[in-house]
Amino acid sequence: MNNASVTLGRRFEGQVALITGGGRGIGQEVAARLAAEGARLAIFDMNVAGAEETCVRVKKAGGEAMAYGVDVTSRDAVAAAVKSVVTDFGRIDVLINNAGIGWRIPFLEITDADWSKIIGTNLTGYFIVAQEVARSMVTSKKGRIVNVASINAHIGTDHQAAYAASKGGIVALTRVMAFELAPLGIYVNAISPGPIETELSAMNLSPATRRSREERIPQGRLGQPGELAAAIAFLASPDASYINGTVLVVDGGLISGGIREPK
Predict the structure, then answer these.
(1) Which value, in Å, is the radius of gyration of the alpha carbons in the chain?
(2) Which one of 3.40.50.2000, 3.40.50.720, 3.40.190.10, 3.60.21.10 gives the CATH number of domain 12-250?
(3) Which of 19, 55, 165, 173 is 20 to 30 Å apart from 147, CA to CA?
């Protein structure tokens, strides 16, 4: 799919979108997509330079964005930053909860510190940001929240216990949030990406590992960042007006692919 060939609408015209982990990779791609469709952006990232880089990219394309250095595991920092966004932009209409970390560790070697760090960022961080933003959304009685999970929430993979547990927690959290917040006009969904072509995957995947992954994906390739951004934008848009509490898997058919017979 060549995303450059897609004619974009203006589904987010006049809306304010907050993106966590927006200073690199998928978060940066989502920022570009939402800005192209009219959103004004608040970019949260611990790496302020990365957040500012995203803002420069958005502004060069004619959009509006502001960078905020935020540690999503800190309630005080998140509360202060959300308050600043509301002051700077007037409100928050969309939250893309994307900030996350993870590294491969054999189950028997995971330390308490490893576990706490990954769960703290990927799950507790999502909870803190979503709660603070939802409290601000209540005043306007409308909002969209998209939590970025992973196919690791749905399948077992080696050396990913803490990461998978955090992503599984995000799926469960999403469903509870959707149930409780819908009467307040706030709709919550999650997206579970499969292998995506990013700078990080290019550095970390050996040619053999890459081929192995591509062979397991029915579509025969890794996903492109723009394809994932398009799916996230859909869930955050008015086009998903009757979708709530759903987990959208974007993986080229990987987890539904079954067992391939030898050629």
Answers:
(1) 18
(2) 3.40.50.720
(3) 55
pTM for this prediction: 0.93
Encoded tokens for 122: 């990927």
DSSP secondary structure string for all residues of 150-164: -GGGTS--TT-HHHH
Options 68, 163, 187, 242, the catalytic residue: 163
Domain ranges of the chain: 12-250
133: alpha, beta or left, given left = phi > 0 and alpha = psi -120 to 50?
Answer: alpha
- List 64's β-bridge partners, or say none: 40
Contact assessment for residue 141 and residue 185, using Cβ atoms and an 8 Å cutoff? yes
- Walking along the chain (263 residues) 10 residues at a time, the average pLDDT comes out as 58 97 94 98 97 97 97 98 98 97 93 97 98 97 97 90 97 98 98 88 78 89 95 98 98 82 62
Distance (Å, whole) CA 179 – CA 245: 7
